[in-house]
């Protein structure tokens, strides 16, 4: 049995993960990191703790859907007690991202801003289309529920990175995050990444390629959070058998 710990267990994703881990064959729910208070029932033997180090002691793999500061603490503590980490949180600073890279030198770490199989494939398609339709303008729009705190979504930024990569560009230098007022005409290389928020939208990403006379839009819509929790569980089962390194969901899916 693989012992699983969850960071962010009281969140929207945490609720699905607890249920899905308890249902999954070959996995044992060993511990939950709880920042405040747990409101769902779990078996008595599950460790419930606000200490990352205590959680790490009882787990073979940790799945993290939380907040950047919590993931930072997780990586810092995991460097003292290396454990496989599946990281799904988004909205990291450069420092927090570097910390994840450092952790991956000591343990297997799988980081993906989106745990769905559809987005794993879409990243590759976006890079291919970007490289092939070189004259087309690229624009990215994401839509999420009203509670999401980071923008644009981690997935939209990842898709932007793949789009930029297809053209040999760096997203940080070509990204536009808003347009308002007399801003002038669109420049050739810019890639806008725009965020819309409302209602209960689980996650919707559209990468558009626009030219004179035609346009192509690639869209992915997640209709259930179980897509992400089950994707993360598949990743955890795969990751426990890997050596130290930084992996993505594409490595786990073999695509
Ligand atoms: N990669 C993917 O496929 C996906 C990634 N995500 C990402 O996962 C993250 C969580 O999403 P979601 O569940 O909707 O968010 P929620 O806000 O519902 O949950 C966040 C969780 O993190 C906990 N938390 C917040 N701050 C801290 C802290 N300082 N220390 C410890 N725990 C903390 C919260 O605890 P408390 O309740 O006590 O505040 C809560 O359990 C987001 O970054 C989101 O973008 C979401 C879906 C898919
Ligand atoms: O916060 C969410 O809900 C989601 N976050 C991820 C992101 O920021 O890309 C993935 C998914 O779209 C849902």
From TrEMBL:
For this record, an example GO cellular component is: cytoplasm
Catalytic activity reported: (S)-2,3,4,5-tetrahydrodipicolinate + NADP(+) + H2O = (2S,4S)-4-hydroxy-2,3,4,5-tetrahydrodipicolinate + NADPH + H(+); (S)-2,3,4,5-tetrahydrodipicolinate + NAD(+) + H2O = (2S,4S)-4-hydroxy-2,3,4,5-tetrahydrodipicolinate + NADH + H(+)
Which Enzyme Commission number(s) are on file for it? 1.17.1.8
Domain Dihydrodipicolinate reductase C-terminal stretches? 118-253
Domain Dihydrodipicolinate reductase N-terminal span(s) in chain numbering: 3-115
Q: What is its main location?
A: cytoplasm
Which molecular function term from Gene Ontology is one that the record holds? Answer: NAD binding
Enumerate the residues binding (S)-2,3,4,5-tetrahydrodipicolinate: 145, 154-155
Give the binding site residues for NAD(+). 8-13, 36, 88-90, 112-115
Pathway this chain belongs to: Amino-acid biosynthesis; L-lysine biosynthesis via DAP pathway; (S)-tetrahydrodipicolinate from L-aspartate: step 4/4
* Gene3D superfamilies on file: Dihydrodipicolinate Reductase, domain 2, NAD(P)-binding Rossmann-like Domain
Its top-level enzyme class, in one word, is: oxidoreductase
Keywords from the named record: Amino-acid biosynthesis, Cytoplasm, Diaminopimelate biosynthesis, Lysine biosynthesis, NAD, NADP, Oxidoreductase
GO BP annotations listed: diaminopimelate biosynthetic process; lysine biosynthetic process via diaminopimelate
Q: Where in the cell is it found?
A: Cytoplasm
Enumerate the PROSITE patterns for this protein. DAPB
Q: How does it assemble?
A: Homotetramer.
User: What role does it play?
Assistant: Catalyzes the conversion of 4-hydroxy-tetrahydrodipicolinate (HTPA) to tetrahydrodipicolinate.
Family annotation (NCBIfam families): dapB
Could you identify this protein by its name? 4-hydroxy-tetrahydrodipicolinate reductase
């Amino acid at each position: 049995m693989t012992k699983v710990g969850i960071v962010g267990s009281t969140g929207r994703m945490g609720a699905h993960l607890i249920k899905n881990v308890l249902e999954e064959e070959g996995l044992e729910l060993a511990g939950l990191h709880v920042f405040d208070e747990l409101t769902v029932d779990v078996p008595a033997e599950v460790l419930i703790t606000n200490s990352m180090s205590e959680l790490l002691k009882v787990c073979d793999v940790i799945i993290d859907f939380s907040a950047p500061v919590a993931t930072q603490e997780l990586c810092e503590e995991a460097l003292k007690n290396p454990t496989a980490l599946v990281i799904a949180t988004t909205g990291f600073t450069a420092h927090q991202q570097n910390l994840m890279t450092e952790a991956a030198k000591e343990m297997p770490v799988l980081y993906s801003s989106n745990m769905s199989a559809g987005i794993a494939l879409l990243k590759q398609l976006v890079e291919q289309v970007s490289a092939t339709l070189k004259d087309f303008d690229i624009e990215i729009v994401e839509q999420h529920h009203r509670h999401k705190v980071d923008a644009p979504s981690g997935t939209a930024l990842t898709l932007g990175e793949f789009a930029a990569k297809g053209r040999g560009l760096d997203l940080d230098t070509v990204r536009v995050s808003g347009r308002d007022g007399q801003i002038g005409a669109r420049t050739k290389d810019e890639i806008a990444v725009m965020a819309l928020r409302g209602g209960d939208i689980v996650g919707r990403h559209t990468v558009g390629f626009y030219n004179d006379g035609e346009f192509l839009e690639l869209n992915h819509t997640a209709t259930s959070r179980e897509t992400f929790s089950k994707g993360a569980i598949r990743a955890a089962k795969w990751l426990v058998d890997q050596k130290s390194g930084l992996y993505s969901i594409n490595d786990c899916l073999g695509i």
